[in-house]
């Protein structure tokens, strides 16, 4: 069970965030080549009341860090989420990969049964065991934001394919 | 390990496909209310060389069935993928839920170590153990298509939110 909880989180986050970093590099190169103001991509939205691309990347990273930390019983780090440029977003992914890379299977011992409380003390407070938290909440949320970042760039003409999204596996 | 492989697949597919079916129902109601030709939604694309919405739903269902069957060592069923209308797409989800609902934890015994071969006999042939296949390939693919279907409908003004995407959990 320990192995499964670790295998279902850290390596998955690493794979997908690695893919996302490569996608952002392609998007930046695309903008340079076509003389596109990078904010046309970093601030792109699929609908006016949806988050822009840069925020999708930040939230994906936030879930990767938060889910990993909670499962490991570690403190969830607070990041400022001030990133605007592609370089800053890639740096954010690097920092996030560095943070989650600090966890190994040993820290995930007992993670499946660990009680996780999200939004504690608020009306939206929810309690999960670790396995449910990861599979029913953390992974769906993480994949949502990675895919939406991809969809936003693809929608705006960046030449990427599902292979880029899938990362190295 | 058995429990983990089952828990990381069938219930996740059920949760997300349930959410997707509810999203499709909202999209259909939205089209009726606004007098929108439903094909404006079912055939919507985020970019000309991406698959349309209806195909995203079909592929999501295809991964749910294929991944479940392969992990259980069962035959992957062939579906015709002829669905065009919202009703047909919801029916497809129902059939898919029926199919994957036929698997229990017992069928997933040994699934983590089972050898899975995708696109056998082609230049794209790949071999995985079951755990890697599920976590590095099956889940990322499945979430990609569910999220893209959601993004397409959201982009086209259907009033849905991430809560709809998340389904019941």
UniProtKB/TrEMBL annotation, chains A, B:
Pfam families cross-referenced by the UniProt entry:
DUF1993 (PF09351)
Entry's SUPFAM superfamilies? Answer: DinB/YfiT-like putative metalloenzymes
User: Record's InterPro entries?
Assistant: DinB/YfiT-like, DUF1993
Q: What is this protein called?
A: DUF1993 family protein
Q: Organism classification, top ranks?
A: Bacteria, Pseudomonadati, Pseudomonadota, Gammaproteobacteria, Lysobacterales
């Amino acid at each position: 069970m320990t192995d499964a909880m670790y295998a279902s989180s850290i390596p998955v986050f690493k794979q997908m965030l690695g893919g996302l970093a490569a996608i952002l590099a392609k998007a930046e190169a695309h903008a340079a080549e076509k003389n596109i103001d990078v904010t046309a991509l970093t601030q792109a939205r699929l609908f006016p009341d949806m988050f822009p691309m840069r925020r999708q990347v930040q939230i994906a990273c936030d879930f990767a860090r938060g889910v990993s930390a909670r499962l490991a019983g570690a403190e969830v780090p607070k990041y400022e989420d001030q990133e605007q440029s592609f370089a800053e977003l890639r740096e954010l992914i690097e920092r996030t990969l560095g943070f989650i890379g600090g966890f190994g299977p040993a820290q995930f011992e007992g993670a499946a049964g660990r009680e996780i409380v999200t939004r504690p003390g608020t009306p939206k407070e929810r309690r999960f065991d670790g396995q449910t938290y990861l599979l029913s909440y953390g992974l769906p949320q993480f994949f949502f934001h990675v895919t939406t970042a991809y969809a936003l760039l693809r929608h705006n003409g960046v030449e990427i394919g599902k292979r880029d999204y899938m990362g190295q596996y």
